[in-house]
Amino acid sequence: MDRKTTAPKKLITKRDLIIILIPAIIAACLYFMHRKGTRTSVLLYSDNQLIKELPLSQDTSYTVSNELGSNTVVIENHQVYVRDADCPDKRCEKQGAISKPGETIICLPHKLIIEVSNGE
Amino acid sequence: MPDQTVSVTKTGIAMGTVVSITSYAGRKGRSESEVKDDLNRQILQIFDETEKIDKDLLSWRSETSETNHFNQSTQTTPIPVSDELGGVIRDAIEVSSRSGSALDITLRPLISIWGIESYDGKEPYEPPSVDSVRETGRYTGINLLHLTQAQDGAFLLQKDRPEVQIDLGAVGKGYVLDAATSILKGSETKGAVFAAGGSILAYGEKDSHWQIGVRDPAGGPADYIGLLSLEGGAERTYYISTSGGYEKYTESNGRIYEHIIDGRTLYPAEGDLLSATIITQNSGLASDALSTACYLLGIEGSADLLQYYQAEAVFVTKRNEVFISQGLKGIFSLTNSAYTLKNME
User: Fold this and answer.
1) Which terminus of chain A is more exposed, N or C, with fewer CB under 10 A?
2) Mind telling me how many Å the CA of B307 is from chain A's nearest CA?
3) What is the rounded distance in angstroms from the CA atom of residue A66 to the CA atom of residue A52?
């Protein structure tokens, strides 16, 4: 028999498949992680009512102001914190920045709750 | 394989404090979002009930509450009150008298002139004069308040002087835990932790144990001195309440004035405790009332009360000692080395 006769060549080998799929899987993972990251939002509740929802991915500042007082909520580098609150203790300012879903900053005298949420 | 457990956490503001609940339920064949909807609905129900109890029943600040109506009344003949308010007052009066009036639900006029709880920091704090305290003290004392029941069981509340006013701030949050328990029992919810200010309910089953932190009097709201590891169980309840001067105080001429007023002296607490944490299993109201009473009475003075109410306690002293009652051995663990653990006799 002619030693040079071989099985017909496959168009795509198993090795090719692995080389194609791995980056595709990585790309898909990064895409979904990015999407989840951009879905994370900051929820503002005043007297237990949701008054504003802001994306954590976009730097901004938002002031909540009513008859109880005023708090400026700042979103910066995927974190949120309170600046310029006119409550007596300023515990909300001293609390610093939060960024993980479920974390909250509370200004009790102003009945303000700031919560990081991933929509669940 | 254990049924998948779903949990929901919600934080809100009620009764002038932060309230938060985490509830757990098994899926039992339902979808995760169905279970979460059920849990969310129940949480809203508990928050609503909490607001209602505060605004309509217990809060002296609320214009529409039964308590406020009684306080505004100058009538010295018996006034009918609802079964719910009657029950709360009856239980609160019992703790008050068993505490020798250290806890006293008639101190509102006195708390008002001391102005510590309401102090807003805008002006320097000034304590009331000795004469002012003595004069206002004449309108306080549970001996001036009488709760009776008519033949049909209806409650009647009577004040001996028109100036008598009740303040249920020391028992309100505990009572709210009892109301939450009624909503949780018999429902699909397997377990829950409900925190209302310094009073916590640990309800039902937990895969290992409920881990409840005891607050560090010298630290912030998230700092603990130790953990209570409480074994869960079907519809089992633990009520954990803490009272301490660190919660609110003022200063004047180098002297500290704590917001907890001692009914025996008419002056702010001056004992050697930084905080008292009381754990009961059958009454949230009792755990809240006892935490104030025991904070004022001190470790030795609290022994009879703890025994009568079958309560356990964690006391933190001004010498940074942590005393735990017998029943907490193996349950409480100290996590802050700035304090020394001691067992109560």
Assistant:
1) N
2) 36
3) 14
The complex's ipTM?
0.76
Tokens read off for B165: 């006013």
Chain A contact for B17 (CB, 8 A cutoff):
yes
Percentages helix, strand, coil for chain B, rounded to the nearest 5?
A: 30, 30, 40
Query: Looking at the domain assignment, is residue B164 inside a domain?
Result: no
Q: Is the domain of B272 the same as that of B308?
A: yes
DSSP symbol at B207: S
* Three-state secondary structure string covering chain A: CCCCCCCCCCCCCHHHHHHHHHHHHHHHHHHHHHHHHHHCEEEEEECCEEEEEEECCCCEEEEEEECCEEEEEEEECCEEEEECCCCCCCHHHHCCCECCCCCEEEECCCCEEEEEECCC
Structural domains in chain B (count): 2
B155 and B191, same domain (yes or no): no
What is the C-alpha separation between B10 and B180, in angstroms, rounded? 14
User: Inter-chain contact B13–A88, Cβ cutoff 8 Å?
Assistant: no
Nearest residue in A to B33, CA atom:
A120
Confidence of residue B1 (pLDDT cuts 50, 70, 90): very low
Q: Residue B191 domain-assigned?
A: yes
Q: Kindly state whether residues B203 and B93 are assigned to the same domain.
A: no
| Chain B residues within 8 A of A45 when measuring between CB atoms | 12
**B63 has pLDDT over 90:** yes
pLDDT at A27: 84
Nearest to B86 by CA among B174, B145, B44, B30: B145
| Residue B119 exposed, middle or buried by CB count within 10 Å (0-12, 13-18, 19+) | middle
| Residues, chain B | 345
Q: From the CB of residue A23, how many other CB atoms can be counted at a distance below 10 Å?
A: 9
The tokens describing A61, both together, are 């500042």
